[in-house]
Amino acid sequence: DTQRTARLRNFKNKLAPANYTDNLYQAFLEKTAIWVDAKKIEILDRLYSILEKDFRRNDWVGKGYHCLEHSIECALLTQSVPLDPDLRSAADRLELAVAALLHDYDPLRSSGVPDTLHTVQLVLLDSFLNHTLKELELEPARLALLIDRTSYPMTARQEQLWECRVALHFCNPTETDRYIRKGKLLAKLNRASTYVCLNPHEAMRRV
Fold first, then answer.
1. What is the reported pTM?
2. How many Å apart are CA 45 and CA 36, to the nearest integer?
3. What is the mean pLDDT of the segment spanning 167-181?
């Protein structure tokens, strides 16, 4: 695991800067394909192409903490880090990957900082996203909860309220605990991904 983290940290240095985004995304797809069948990889690729167009059209690429590359870095980490035994299923890994790709997707943002509420609303209400998630056998309401946990900063009170929403959704202590751990994991990967995938100098320049 230590060697894997070191490889990820040096990943940026092994790529030509112009190819970083494409190569990063290909690395994510290759890791995800270990757990997910080819049909879902095709659907995932279609979803990414829509996200990429929106990010590039609005110039949310290569700079800032909430750029396209950050979302892919976060998604790559969801497929690379060790997971708890009860979070290792293909469905869990796919749910984490899609949540990571979508967590900063906010076409309505007026500045460089996306609003998680907008993202959650899109996941719940957008017809294209709903259809795509159904094809991936993912539940929009579950995914919205997961994305909501990536809000930053999150106060202790906000975290408590989020955990209450999870408990109300599942009405099952075991599943509630499992999903809370999954949400906390995604939040940690969101904060760490840029610093893990890039060398320190590039990470500081990014943020």
1. 0.87
2. 12
3. 97
Q: Hey, how many other C-beta atoms are within 10 angstroms of the C-beta on 104?
A: 26
Q: Which of 76, 122, 127 is nearest to 100 (CA)?
A: 76
Instruction: Name the nearest CA neighbour of 54 among 117, 102, 107.
Output: 107
| Joined tokens for residue 130 | 């709903």
The CA angle 64-70-72, to the nearest 5 degrees, is: 155
Whether pLDDT at 11 is above 60 = no
128-132 long-range contacts, CB within 8 A, separation 24+? 128/50, 129/102, 132/43, 132/46, 132/47
Tens digit of pLDDT for each residue in 60-105? 887 667 899 999 999 999 999 999 999 999 999 999 999 999 999 9
Pairwise CA distance, residues 39 & 18, whole Å: 29
- Which residue type is seen at 203? A
Long-range CB contacts (within 8 A, 24+) of 198-207: 198/9, 198/11, 198/12, 198/73, 199/9, 199/10, 199/12, 199/13, 202/12, 206/63, 206/64, 206/65, 206/67, 206/69, 206/70, 207/64, 207/65
Tokens of 193: 């991904």
Token look-up 């909501």 returns: 148
Structure tokens at 6: 């070191």
- Tell me: the pLDDT tens digits for 112-144? 789 999 999 999 999 999 999 999 999 999 999
Contact 99, 146 (CB under 8 A): yes
More confident residue, 96 or 108: 96
